[in-house]
Amino acid sequence: MQPEYLKTDAATVDFMDYGVALGRRFRALKLWFVMRYFGLDRLAAILRENVKMADWLAEQISVHPRFQLVTPADMGLVCFRIREGDAHTRELSRRINGSGRFFVSHTVLEGRFVIRVAIGNIRTRQQDIEELWVAIKNIAEALEPRSTRGDS
Questions:
Q1: Domain residue spans in the chain?
Q2: What is the rounded distance in angstroms from the CA atom of residue 90 to the CA atom of residue 3?
Q3: Three-state SS for 116?
Q4: Helices (H), 39-149
Q5: φ, ψ at 127 (rounded to 5°)
Q6: Is the Cβ–Cβ distance between 92 and 139 less than 8 Å?
Q7: Residue 116 in contact with residue 79, Cβ under 8 Å?
Q8: Is the pLDDT of residue 85 over 50?
Q9: Class of the CATH-defined domain 28-142
Q10: What pTM did the predictor assign?
Q11: Sequence-separated contacts (24+) of 10-14 with Cβ below 8 Å
């Protein structure tokens, strides 16, 4: 069984399938290498910065009238949707990923399709998140005119 947020389009390469499996021996080895390379203080600073960027994006989404923040931002994860419903949210996700510049995943929460932005790469900068936000707004604007019905 595969959780909804790990399901991707067939055309997408799933790098999860090309790494050391978490269920095998030495599953903490990857974490040990990261901690050894960065050190505890630098790793904590990276995590704090990722959380700060996620909070910024969540704030932008929460004040925009067309978007709905589905859950509070948590540890670099922002979940949102377009208020018009699942079809618009699904299409937004497809177009963001189709641009080749950004990758977002999805899940289903309480029966609603939700876009997930997971900020966790050590090379991600605030400028990247700002560019993603501009892309989200521009792509959403290019979608069909807002429906009055909405398919929650």
A1: 28-142
A2: 17
A3: strand
A4: 40-63, 86-98, 126-142
A5: -60, -40
A6: yes
A7: yes
A8: yes
A9: alpha beta
A10: 0.79
A11: 12/97
Q: Output the pLDDT for position 30.
A: 80
Candidates 3, 5, 42, 132; catalytic one = 5
Residue of 34 and 78 predicted with greater confidence? 78
Residue of 143, 32, 34 whose CA lies nearest to 81: 143
Is there a catalytic annotation at residue 18? Answer: no
Q: What is the phi/psi pair of residue 5, to 5°?
A: -70, -10
Q: What residues contact 136, with CB distance under 8 A and at least 6 apart?
A: 67, 92, 96
Nearest partner of 152 among 70, 29, 65, judged by Cα: 70
Write out the two tokens for 73. 């931002």
The pLDDT assigned to 38 comes to: 94
> How many CA atoms are closer than 13 Å to the CA of 67, on its beta-carbon side?
25
